[in-house]
Amino acid sequence: MIKVLHNSNCSKSNAVLEYLDENGVQFEIIDIVKDPLTVLELKTILKKLNQPVENMVRKNEKLYLEKYAGKEFSEDEWLEILAENPSLIQRPILIKGSVAMIGRPVENVKFFIEG
């Protein structure tokens, strides 16, 4: 089963859920706003993404632009920031076993669920 890290206020995240539902894919929703992820959970997801932590950060968010833009942070610092501010996490993130992907654009999700 695919786990979907989801923010219900995000149109892209909602579009991916709709896509999965329309294609009969079983999934579990993890609402990252209602149930924020811990640093350890984020670290595990980051390993599954196999990308730098900066790719998990939504750099167009107002909070990012006001507080974090132009500053350097270590991976551990970013993980703390993301744990405290789940709105800064890219979404949706799909997790299947030992791999994960950021579900943007929705067209890429097809390859992930079939692969």
TrEMBL record:
Gene3D superfamilies: Glutaredoxin. It comes from the Bacteria. Coiled coil: none annotated. InterPro entries: Arsenate_reductase-like (IPR006660), Thioredoxin-like_sf (IPR036249). It holds the Pfam family ArsC. SUPFAM superfamilies: Thioredoxin-like (SSF52833). Belongs to the ArsC family. This is Arsenate reductase (Glutaredoxin).
